[in-house]
Amino acid sequence: MIDKLYDFFKDKKILLLGFGLEGQSTLRLLEKLNIADDEAVTVWEKYNHTVGTKLPLEYDIIVKSPGIPLFQRPGETDKRITGQADLFLRFCRERKPVVVGITGTKGKSTTSSLLHHILSECGVKSRLIGNIGVPPLDIAYETDDADVIVAELSCHQLEYVEESPQIAVLLNIYEEHLDHYIDFAHYKYVKENIFRFQRPGDVLIRGEDAEVSEIEREVTNAKLRGRHNLRNIAVAVKAAIAAAELSGSGIDKAAAIKAGCGFGGLEHRLELFAEIDGVAWVNDSICTIPEAAIAAVEAFPEADTIIIGGMDRGVDYSILTRFLQERVELNVIALPDSGHKIAESLSNVYKAVDLADAVAYAKQVSRKCCVLSPAAASYGFYRNFEERGTHFKELVLDLHEN
Length: 402
Hints:
By secondary structure, this protein is α/β, with parallel strands linked by helices. It is 37% helix and 16% strand. The protein is built from 15 helices and 15 strands. The strands form three sheets. A six-stranded mixed sheet has the order 10-11-15-12-13-14, with helices on both faces. The chain has a five-stranded parallel sheet with strand order 6-7-5-8-9, covered by helices on one side. A four-stranded parallel sheet has the order 2-1-3-4. Helix 4 packs across helix 9, helix 4 crosses helix 10 and helix 9 crosses helix 10. It starts with a helix and ends with a helix.
């Protein structure tokens, strides 16, 4: 893989568009390859795109960080643009290690972690990379150390890929990230890049596959709560069996299911982090769409309080509004901006000023369980959903200590 990357970059003028985790990782790789001098590489830490803007023609390769939107439709994209996911999938396409790419509007981090856990528990050497926090090219020198590489891939990472993994997992597609794409059709197209370039003999697993449903019926006594997580376990089991087979090893289905049922979950994802004075507190800050908020309440049927709201990205909230209108026993606490918009159609609602106000009110009214499941992005209020979830937990614990 390293030789292929060197040949790709050598004697080229390179622009790094964005300098977050992936941008910094790319620069480190170029430095290791000894092709990162000032004349060869330019770094733009920030880039404010406007429709119709053309990227400078003097660069041969533009390595774009995932978080930068360019609003280029398929077929109209600048062919010089690539990203770490594209380069990794392009140049790590050998029989070993087997690459499993996982995407979906919801559940991709949990399912990726589940798959990594199942493989490890069943004796298959696995690495977990991608949107979970490890830039793909961070392991460019270490790909031989694993039998299977599990890559969680976001829509932003998939936008400019021209290769698909040997095993592609598409969990679901819901309306989201409309602030980064021209419309929902554009977002859906990008998601489907996970399998668009697969070759004969490759494997595609969808969340709605009949075989996944069959495995789901065998999943019992799982640590993860929620029907959607039973489906995530089933998908991970199917992917684990397929990956082990392609890598030349084998996994017993019963052992894979047992390993999946023993997985305890991730922070900020239906995380039951405290039980105080008989009230359970659940941090589901990862929830950024209406369907996920509904799933959170269904996963915790004892919930009598839900905190919703965050950045308004133009998502259709009608399904969540109808659900909350029917659940009159729920105390709904609405945060700005999207939560206040939903509140206009509800009677069982308190409009909070901020998260601290929301937690203080939740303590007053909750008798069994309070769930933070915002159904909205955190941007504009927090840097990311992790910061929002961490602040929520701090507020809850501080309020009960004082």
